[in-house]
Design a protein that fits this description.
174 residues, alpha+beta, Secreted effector protein pipB2 fold, 9-stranded mixed beta sheet, 5 helices, 30% helix
Length: 174
């Protein structure tokens, strides 16, 4: 679980409303053989996306390529901002799943497309979208990019998927 107490990232839905990121969580559902990514906003919305093995592999690869632009996992893991977030309990807080509003539906949507680009200096815009309809767009600074990659890596390990582009390196550097 990742929690952003600093209001660094934003969630954009429908390109109309922007909310601050509150928490992210990933869990493996063995019955579906999928990961469930839950992203909550400070405004009380929770966005749920189901990630298949194939989609998760593509997402992990994109995140790893983006991390490489900033010196890779070790460089971002050892940055002051990342260390401060970890010391502040960003990875240890329980996910607060009592949100009342589910803009993508309570059961979530199946992620199908990934778009990414720059949303400003050092900020990645990462869009996780279904085949049709609304998805979410995350604006991630370098630290949250690292944290999301770490979260996805943990999900891959939970699922036991052994993806070729996945490395346990992100879980061992702190």
């Amino acid at each position: 679980m990742i929690s952003d107490q600093h209001g660094i990232a934003t969630i954009v839905k429908c390109r109309i409303m922007t909310e601050q990121l509150h928490q992210m969580n990933i869990s493996y559902n063995p019955k579906e053989d999928r990961l469930l990514l839950r992203v909550s906003s400070k405004g009380g919305d929770e966005f749920r996306l189901w990630l298949t093995r194939r989609y998760t592999g593509m997402l992990a690869n994109i995140l790893k390529q983006e991390l490489a632009k900033y010196g890779g996992e070790p460089a971002l893991a050892s940055s002051d901002e990342t260390r401060n977030m970890i010391k502040g309990g960003a990875l240890k807080q329980s996910y607060e799943g009592d949100n009342a509003s589910f803009p993508l539906g309570e059961s979530g949507v199946l992620a199908f497309r990934i778009n990414c680009g720059e949303a400003g200096e050092g900020v990645l815009r990462l869009e996780l979208l279904p085949e049709q309809g609304q998805g979410i767009s995350l604006n991630l600074n370098k630290t949250l990019l690292y944290m999301l990659h770490n979260l996805i890596s943990q999900g891959i390990d939970q699922a036991g998927w052994n993806l070729s582009n996945h490395s346990r390196e992100s879980l061992n550097v702190h």
